[in-house]
Structure formats: C-alpha cells, structure tokens
Design brief:
The structure is a single chain. The chain is an alpha/beta fold. The chain folds into 2 domains: about 70 residues, no CATH class; about 160 residues, Alpha/beta knot, CATH 3.40.1280. Helix content is about 30%, strand content about 20%. α5 packs parallel to α9. The protein is elongated and about 55 Å long.
Length: about 240
C-alpha cells in the first residue's frame, strides 16, 4: 500500500483524527516526544529517532517541528458524488494548471475556512496532491476538504453544470466585477495559474468571467489570495 509522509504539528494532528487514513508510525525526536504523546486520534507506534533520521524522510529544508507521520493517502473522491451531495448554496473551487504546492496548500486552507465543499485540480500540469509540502501549508485542511484530480476540465465543467452549478472564471479582464454581481445558488469558481491564467477553452466555457475590484496601479494578486477574496465574496 502506498505511503505518505506528513510533517508539521497541525498537519499531523489533523491526519491522526481522519478515519480514512491508516497510520504506520509517528516519528519524533527526544525534543518532540512529549508533545506527540498528547495528540488525539488514532495514535500509531511512536518511534523516537534522531533529527538527522527524521529529516531524511521528508523534503529538505522542510519546517517539520520534529514530527513526521507515516500514513496512507486519502482515497480519491468522485466529482459526481460530491455534486450529488451538494447543497443549493455549495461552492467548489477549480484550479486550471496551478502547479505550486505552496499555493495549492494555501488555497485548500481558504477552502476550509470559507466552506468550499471541494477543490478540483488538473491531473496533468497540476500540483502533486500527495505532496507533504502541500499538506503542511494546508495546516490540516487536507483532512477537511476533498481534493479531486480531473483530466479534462471541459468535461468537469459539463458535469458541474449538469448538477446545477454556475461556472465563474476569474480573470483581470473579466466582464463583471466580483462583489457587484450576486453569486446565487451552486457556484464553481475557476482560477488559472499565475502568468498564463485560465486557458482559452476554460474561459470560453465559463458562464461568466469575473475580475477583482483592484486598483489600476496594481491589478493582480497571487492566485491563493485571489481565491480567498473570491470565496469571501460568495458568502
């Protein structure tokens, strides 16, 4: 069975409470041993190892707080299942080829904070959803918000529309301004990578293209900040 190594106090504490995961071991150092024993959830075998051994299990220069959890990835979700259970005011975030795990982790955290029911990413040219860096930045949100990897965003949009979602794309040249148009019902928000933005076909298939009400002097934001602003506007 595939293994995943998570690190950082918030990410590990949240994963331990997730019944969808099966944990193998919790690696700590002498310094973090007492803290780890206070964790709630399904605590696996706790193994005290050296700092050097612990750091060999995760990406270099990771901010790990001397806690690493060896566990299984969360089972994949179905878009149809998510949509079928969606309430009339549900929001889904869709990322069009956003590759940076730091950005995707921050976006996932915003999804959890503002009640988005799922985050959709592209299976090709998208961030690695099993990345421990993504999980660390998400600070526990990975255990709360389902991540779906979709191969074809055009088909994804068709499915969303079949289930009653309105598809809104975010672009600095959007014809409508976020905050001045009421987003009622089920909402799917589409965001592109920094620089390229949304791809042409994605833009063409969106029901409405939106822009942020930014100043002329500085019209763009980091994609994770854009998502947070947009999600707040849908509440």
């Amino acid at each position: 069975m595939k293994k995943q190594f998570l690190f950082g106090l918030h990410a590990v504490k949240a994963a331990l409470k997730n019944p969808q995961r099966k944990h193998t071991a919790l690696y700590v150092t002498d310094k973090s041993h007492k803290t780890a024993l206070a964790f709630k959830g399904t605590l696996p075998s706790v193994k005290v190892i050296s700092l050097k051994e612990l750091e060999q299990k995760i990406p270099s220069q990771s901010i790990h707080q001397q806690v690493v959890l060896e566990t299984t990835p969360i089972a994949p979700f179905s878009l149809e299942d998510i949509c079928a259970q969606a309430k009339n005011d549900a929001t889904i975030v869709v990322l069009d080829q956003v590759t940076d795990p730091h950005n995707v982790g921050a976006i996932l955290r915003s999804c959890a904070a503002f009640g988005s029911i799922a985050l959709v990413v592209t299976a090709n040219h998208g961030a690695d959803t099993s990345s421990a860096v993504l999980a660390k930045v998400a600070s526990g949100a990975l255990e709360v918000v389902p991540i779906l990897e979709e191969v074809n965003l055009s088909q994804t949009m068709d499915t969303l529309k079949e289930y009653g979602f309105w598809c809104y794309g975010l672009d600095e040249e959007g014809e409508e301004t976020l905050g001045k148009i009421k987003l009622d019902g089920k909402v799917a928000l589409f965001f592109g990578a920094e620089g390229p933005g949304l791809r042409r076909l994605t833009k063409e298939k969106c029901d409405v293209m939106l822009r942020l009400p930014t100043t002329d002097q500085f019209s763009t934001l980091n994609v994770s900040n854009t998502v947070a602003v947009a999600l707040f506007a849908t509440r």
